[in-house]
Amino acid sequence: MPDLIFDQDGLSRSTSNSPPTHYTLTIESFSMLTENSVDTYESGEFDAGGYKWKLVVYPNGNTKKNVEDHISVYLKMAEANSLQTGWEVSVDFRLFLLDQNKGIYLVVQDANMNKMCLHGAMLQVGFDRVIPLKAFSVASNGYLIDDTCVLGAEVFVCKERRAGKAECLSRINNAFMNKHCWKIESFSMLKSQCLQSELFTAGGQKWKIDLYPKGTDDGKNTHVSVYLRLATPEKLSPGSQLLTEYTLRIVDQLDGKDKSRKSNHTWFSASNSCWGWPCFIKLGSFKMLDNGYLVKNTCLVEAEVTVHGIAKALEPTD
């Protein structure tokens, strides 16, 4: 049995020598999340009790619940849309945080050992204040060593156990920005609803720029829409995600001013391989000659792409 050390905020915190049964998440560069304004990190799927789950980590606390200066972690039901209407699942969720100095785990769970209930209107449950960021960051506590931390999960549904899976989130060392320039000539003569640039490489991946001259989705017939697309998402290993910083712009060819620049940080994956803006620039503004976006029927589009990190599913070990 684990040794109980303290209760607060309705949580029980204990220590255990045993690793988590169902899932392990290693974050090799925790500061990468905060430095790149990543509010939330959502892990890959894992199995427990006949269901699929994910861990959701808020590195600076869940601001939607007014949490500050703490790490928030939740258990999320994955593939909930495949369950029958009216489903409800009660779980005993235990979160693990490895003390790398001592080789033992801090185990966080409900102080009263209450079951947590998930259903269609509540797809995730968990802990708003797992640990204060100050305590987490102190090296002598062992939770964050060389910018690396190890989280784990145990999820018991009717006390069923299954073999665990694992995942590792890593920073790409010496990540640098790749810039691609795309020249579109005879613009008004092009008939395609979507124009695609040639392939270019950034962060070891192939990318394309998608441009919709008459817009798409919310920008249809009112805006030019511009997106960044991961060109070969099928080549990613299953469950992989790429933390990507990107900037898209349509160049002002008259004075070079950066008037149309839009930037974002997001996760690209096989299931979410295209991100951008349906309302990138209004059609009227784009076509106005004084703005310099369309000069001699030629348009210049630029993309700046930096891949900061990659999350990969790891093969389970015996």
UniProtKB/TrEMBL annotation:
Name of the protein in question: MATH domain and coiled-coil domain-containing protein At3g58220-like
Biased composition (Polar residues): 11-20
SMART domains: MATH (SM00061)
Gene coding for it: LOC110751759
Ranges where the MATH domain occurs: 20-155, 177-305
PANTHER family recorded: ANKYRIN REPEAT-CONTAINING PROTEIN-RELATED (PTHR46162:SF2), TRAF-LIKE FAMILY PROTEIN (PTHR46162)
Ranges where the record places region Disordered: 1-20
PROSITE patterns: MATH
